[in-house]
Amino acid sequence: MPKQKKNSSAKKRFKLTSTGKIKRKHAFKNHILTKKSKARKKRLVKFAIVDPTNEGSIKRLLGLGK
Q1: Of 13, 28, 37, 50, which cross-links 22 as Cys (Cβ 3.0–4.6 Å)?
Q2: What is d(CA 35, CA 6) in angstroms, rounded to the nearest whole number?
Q3: What pLDDT was estimated at residue 22?
C-alpha cells in the first residue's frame, strides 16, 4: 500500500511539541510594521499553541491520525 502524503503547506506552517501539542506562528508580522508598536511586534514573534478545536484537522493534514 502506498504511503499517505502529508499536506506540504501544513508541514511548513506547523511543528509538533514534545508533549504532542501543535505550535504555530502569529499572523500580522510580515509587512506594514511601521504602525505597529515595538511591544506588539515582539509578542507576534513568539510561537502560539493551536486551539484544541482545530487540533484534529491540523493533525489530519500532518498525517498524524485524528
Answers
A1: 50
A2: 38
A3: 97
Cβ neighbours, 10 Å, residue 28: 11
- The pLDDT tens digits for 16-30 are 999 999 999 999 999
pTM to 2 decimal places: 0.80
What are the sequence ranges of the domains in the chain? 13-61
What are the two backbone dihedrals, phi and then psi, of residue 33, each rounded to the nearest 5 degrees?
-90, -10
CA gap 40, 58 in Å, rounded? 27
Supply 22's cell numbers: 501543535
| Domain 13-61 is found in CATH 1.10.10 | no
